[in-house]
Design goal:
Blueprint: H1 28-33, H2 39-51, H3 58-64, E1 73-77, H4 83-86, E2 97-102, H5 105-114, E3 122-126, E4 139-144, H6 154-164, E5 165-176, H7 182-190, H8 207-212, E6 215-223, E7 226-229, H9 232-240, H10 247-264, E8 267-270, E9 273-280
Parallel strand pairs: 1-2, 1-4, 2-3, 4-5
Antiparallel strand pairs: 5-9, 6-9, 7-8
The structure holds S-adenosylmethionine (SAM).
């Protein structure tokens, strides 16, 4: 397996797709700071994986909602460390042709390593969702989990997704709702730290309007869940994966979280996550 980072002008000898690494976009800072590799994202995934109340793990729930033909062609954008496929390795139909993509080569490498034990042949490609180097109407499904809110020119990305989908093909896009991580965000605000939810422009509550310009039959599915966190450390790691509070702010956050755990046995955090399923017009 190799990660393909071809230039658009290059021919691709024997390659399945001509793929291009596009670096000249405004998300460069995010790539350098946040998504150079999966370390920050893993801290956030760990909090949810360990302390979620819903017994159906998030990646299994997401997979349950995929309605893709047995020989379908699938493009995942912003795949991160490949958690969706690593956690569903036991039930991926043999006929699915799956390309995992991300604009971060470090993330893609992590996905490749995480999936090395999964018995399925994946393709990997560095792709910016705003410039997808695939032919028109060439895929049955596009998966874009917790990534559309990062994209500076989302209409451009949605137009690209629509273009590469076959008529009737579906976009599966997960994101968070307004209340996601509410208690933690309130605590951060109280100590003077701006929580990252303030920066989410594509939420469960407003995403439909944006999708409606390109897609029909838009469905919103919600994953009912909350966190009961019984240790302070994973919360501190979660915060530090994305934000830079000073020492006194961190000390105050730890004091409150540990106090709650001592009093109630756990620090309760509301979750609000779900998935848009949207069909390309026929
Ligand atoms: C919050 S992570 C989600 C990862 C994975 N989809 C998941 O749900 O675990 C967002 C991912 O989107 C990627 N990303 C952000 N902007 C992107 C863009 N314009 N094109 C492609 N990938 C992008 C990041 O590198 C990161 O891996």
């Amino acid at each position: 397996m190799s990660i393909i980072t071809l230039n658009r002008q290059e021919t691709c000898p024997g390659a399945v797709y001509c793929l291009v690494a596009v670096w000249e976009f405004g998300s460069m800072g995010m790539l350098e700071d946040q998504y150079r590799d999966a370390a920050n994202l893993n801290a956030r995934i760990e909090l949810h994986a360990r302390f979620s109340a819903n017994r159906v793990p998030w990646p299994r729930w997401v997979f349950d909602h995929l309605d893709i033909p047995p020989t379908g062609t699938i493009l995942e954008l912003g795949c991160g460390p490949g958690t969706l496929w690593a956690e569903n390795g036991d039930r991926i139909p043999a006929g699915w042709s799956i390309t995992l993509s991300d604009f971060s080569p470090g993330m893609l490498e992590e996905a490749r390593q995480n999936l090395s034990a999964v018995d399925h042949e994946f393709k990997y490609a560095v792709i910016d969702a705003q410039d997808i180097p695939l032919p028109d109407k060439s895929v049955d499904a596009v998966i874009a989990n917790h990534m559309l809110y990062h994209i500076s020119d989302r209409p451009k990305a949605l137009a690209q997704i629509c273009r590469v989908l076959r008529p009737g093909g579906q976009l599966y896009a997960t994101t968070n709702g307004m209340d996601h991580m509410r208690e933690l965000d309130e605590l951060l605000s109280r100590v003077g730290v701006t929580p990252s939810v303030a920066h989410n422009p594509f939420k469960l509550e407003n995403g439909r309007e944006e999708l409606a310009a390109w897609f029909t039959d838009i469905e919103v599915c919600r994953h009912e869940d909350h966190l009961n966190v019984t240790e302070a450390e994973p919360i501190m790691n979660y915060i530090l994966s994305d934000l830079s509070p000073d020492d006194s702010q961190l000390g105050e956050i730890r004091r409150v979280v540990e106090g709650e755990i001592a009093l109630h046995g756990a620090y309760y955090i509301t979750k609000s996550s779900g998935m848009f399923i949207a069909r390309r017009q026929i």
